[in-house]
Amino acid sequence: VTRDADALLGKAGAGDRAALARLLSMVERGGDAAREVGAVTHPRGGAAYTVGLTGAPGAGKSTLTAALLGVVRGRAERIAVLAIDPSSPFTGGAILGDRIRMHEHATDDGVMIRSMATRGHLGGLALATPAAVRVLDAVGWPWILIETVGVGQVEVDVAGAADTTVVVLNPGWGDAVQASKAGLLEIADVFVINKADRPGAREARDDLERVLDLSSPARRPEVLETVAETGEGAAELWEAVSRHRDDLTRSGELDRRRADRLRDEVAALVAERVLERARQAADGEAFDRLIDEVQARRLDPWSAADELLGSAPTSGR
Amino acid sequence: VTRDADALLGKAGAGDRAALARLLSMVERGGDAAREVGAVTHPRGGAAYTVGLTGAPGAGKSTLTAALLGVVRGRAERIAVLAIDPSSPFTGGAILGDRIRMHEHATDDGVMIRSMATRGHLGGLALATPAAVRVLDAVGWPWILIETVGVGQVEVDVAGAADTTVVVLNPGWGDAVQASKAGLLEIADVFVINKADRPGAREARDDLERVLDLSSPARRPEVLETVAETGEGAAELWEAVSRHRDDLTRSGELDRRRADRLRDEVAALVAERVLERARQAADGEAFDRLIDEVQARRLDPWSAADELLGSAPTSGR
Lengths: 317, 317
Known about the structure:
Two copies of one chain form a homodimer. By secondary structure, the first copy, chain A, is α/β, with parallel strands linked by helices. Chain A contains 14 helices and seven strands. A seven-stranded parallel β-sheet of chain A has the order 3-2-4-1-5-6-7, sandwiched between helices. In chain A, helix 10 (201-215) links the parallel strand 6 and strand 7. In chain A, helix 2 crosses helix 3. The longest helix of chain A has 29 residues, at 253-281. Chain A is globular. At the A-B interface, helix 3, helix 7, helix 8, helix 12 and helix 13 of A face helix 3, helix 7, helix 8, helix 12 and helix 13 of B.
């Protein structure tokens, strides 16, 4: 299988989109397939820069992504997009009949858009996303934009696991507070108030500044305004992203962040491996007997986990 | 600590809300505290019935929950609500100044509303929710309603892990297709089209029926209509939930579902335990050296995970 992954990587590196798509599918599938792809792509990566883009449903993330693609292409740079928002027009938009602003980019060699579907396999998005980034990195995409919906524990974490994370808000009282509750504050490197031509943009910015005052982050995120529909502010947003990149690079913080992410990823891979083993054991008679005991309430789930791990005494009952 | 949990459980069982709140906080914290609470609550549970309620942000889940509380209280039954939607008015609604429809229930001994905040601890919502259900069950709440936002891998799974899961849609072309993409179709036992007084309710129902025709589930969910703002249809929705409960109970499916959920929970606890160990190991020098190797791209993350597990050869490089 490694030979397959290697051959596909060779083709994908030469610009074969079908080969690239197959590699990304292997990564989505998880398990051994993802592992083989990871083994051949990891040694060739490190040059790509990842940008996370997240916000509430309806905040205009996809429209903003389209505007940013225009900016990046205007600079003759290449960019790949991983869209992880189930409500994104990129994700099955054709079925929905949604206007797909990406059509203008569909035949552009400098743009690659991929929607990620990972429901159902172990680890899911949290493991598939860095693996997909690794593939895109290995075949030479210099910018990778990861668009996720900013609701949901996994989705917020995935967007936060980029080199620079952009959080999209809208005018509307309380949006900054909502963002803080959804955990978006901690992950934001840059804030953008999109739909800034609507009433309340100024109040949204004030709200946000107040929330930032209260939370006093180590590095205060820049706050930008955009009207993604018209492209207004998109160039300035990209400049803010580039400034953040320069800061991270100069300070050495980029390497530290990436090392932290690798730590988390390796720990998650360890957990996935063990969970897989536990699930396999879950087909066995011993596991069935344990579950019967738990269901009969003679054993609690924690003690059952201990017995499966075969290590700790079944204390705490 | 077990003695603490035991004492708190005694008080909570006698109606002490502060003691109940402390037990739920221990569960949210995860780790050993959650374990101790689980050990004392698990043996005393089994009588409660859980209802999941989920749907897109803005679908009217909280208003519908309030309407259902009215129905349940009208039948002189007691019900507890776990609100896991970060945008729910229950969750920090006071800060937001949101109209809180729950005020009418705030002084009612037959209603308990708790918002769950679990970001940041291992396992998170997926482990904290069944543990919180176990607490409420052990102190005698007969109905437990779990409200989650239907976006996000973890959140959808949590709502789907109830005895009966209600998925809330709205009039609006494509909502049924969106729900199917978000994985809501697979978990729905009952569908409700809320805001059914708005244009497009009929089309939404037709859409949904077509999507159900295509997916042909083993047990076709009932489709109800409500106007949560006025309470219209809430009684009928609760009857549909009760019918589903009767069906599950009569067919023996309820026990099977619960056993499957226990399997998943025990497997997840095993994974959490091992992830915790891996994170602890992540403080060690050996882990640091491995991460250095991964960052230098001499080792891939999967092989690093293997070395940490100390079991498999570091193949696949």
